[in-house]
Amino acid sequence: MDVLAVCLNPALDREFVIDNFSLDKLNVVPNEKNIMTPGGKGVNVAVILSKYGIKTVTVGFLGGHIGNVLLAELRKTSPLISTSFLRISSETRENIAIADTVNHTLTEINSEGPTVSEEDIKNFMKRYEVLVQKVKTVVISGSIPKGVPNSIYGELTKIAKKYHKTVFWEARDEIISESIKIAFPDVLKYDMRRSEKILGKFLSSEQEYIQAAKDFIKQGANLVILSYKTIYDFVATADGVWKFAPNVEINHSYLLGSGDNFVAAMVYAQLNGKCCIDMARYGYAAGVAKASYMGKEPPSLKQIEEYLGNITIERVE
Q1: What is the DSSP string of 77-143?
Q2: Helices assigned H by DSSP within the chain
Q3: Is residue 246 scored above 70 in pLDDT?
Q4: By C-alpha distance, which of 76, 11, 53 is closest to 257?
Q5: Tens digits of residue pLDDT in 177-212
Q6: φ/ψ (deg, to 5) at 141
Q7: CB 150 within 8 Å of CB 9
Q8: Per residue in 109-159, pLDDT tens?
Q9: How far apart are CA 132 and CA 62, in angstroms?
Q10: Cβ within 8 Å of residue 46, ≥6 positions away
């Protein structure tokens, strides 16, 4: 097995394409524009990697009827995906995304998710430590359910590092802030969809983003990606800081899943021996390629290679 994809709070994703979507009125969705897929950021990464021939095992907490539907849908996706979810009594969440391709908007409605007990967490950690020894790379991505401490990414990374595994994170600030007190990942990507806070502070200037990225490198990360104004990224390694920008127009209604494609493409590049900055280039190209069309289907490896020519990389530090 190549990758352990940790998705602590998986979801059943429902995507509706409703052009000219309006609040407080009846919106009718054609059947072909009502899509149901297994989701949660870690699960999405596993699905994308399977399209690139990468074997993964997905882990997290799963419960109730929605959990059963999610697991059934995930098992249909690819024989390259194995599952080892811990069953819990609380119901798995369901997420809704409404894309309006006319007004170029994307509205997301995410359920909070289940509640996990201390006993469930202990059992999960034991299962995780067994599985982490069997893979090359660990991806920990997405939100956490109620009952799970924000420091969980750090605890999982500390175990992975004991076995010399490469670790990727994509998470929100409150998780990263607590988890880095315990351990740092090799690759850190901030999820800034809900909040633009970094370590509890709102950053405004480009220089503030550059300094924050440099600080994370000093503290132990090998590669840092900070999203800036949605479509740009500041990327830092031990060799410097770069600003990534697209050379093509980005349709904001197509952005759903671009972050997961970014992470998956970086993992693919890492498994194929690419250096940190090339991993970031590959990830950014995948994100831009994904933003060129509707739906969760990832761009092909050929498309990613083509989109490497559609990005600008400027050294800023």
Answers
A1: H-TTEEE-PEEESSPPEEEEEEEETTTTEEEEEE----B--HHHHHHHHHHHHHHHTT-SEEEEES-
A2: 41-51, 64-77, 118-132, 152-162, 173-179, 206-219, 258-271, 276-290, 301-307
A3: yes
A4: 11
A5: 999 999 999 999 998 776 778 999 998 899 999 999
A6: -145, 135
A7: no
A8: 888 889 999 999 999 999 999 999 999 999 999 999 999 999 999 999 999
A9: 19
A10: 3, 5, 7, 56, 58, 81, 139
Instruction: Share the mean pLDDT of the chain.
Output: 94
Inform me whether the pLDDT recorded for 167 exceeds 90. Answer: yes
d(CA 284, CA 245): 9
Q: How confident is the model at residue 242 (pLDDT cuts 50, 70, 90)?
A: very high
Give the pLDDT of residue 196. Answer: 77
CA 182 centroid distance within chain: 21
What single-letter amino acid sits at 227?
A: S
Domains identified in the chain and CATH numbers: 3-226 (3.40.1190.20)
Q: How many CB atoms lie within 10 A of CB 96?
A: 15
CA distances from 146 to 15, 99, 154 (A): 24, 28, 17
Closest CA to 118 of 183, 61, 181, 40: 61
Beta bridge partners of 97: 15, 108
Of 35, 34, 38, nearest to 11 (Cα)?
A: 38
Q: For residue 179, give the DSSP letter.
A: H
Read off φ and ψ for residue 13, nearest 5 degrees: -90, 130
Q: Give 34's pLDDT tier (boundaries 50, 70, 90).
A: confident
What pLDDT, on a 0 to 100 scale, did the predictor assign at position 194? Answer: 63
Q: Which amino acid is at 81?
A: I
Give the Cα separation of 304 and 282 in Å (integer). 7
Q: What percentage of the chain has pLDDT greater than the value 70?
A: 99
Name residue, tokens 């072909």.
32
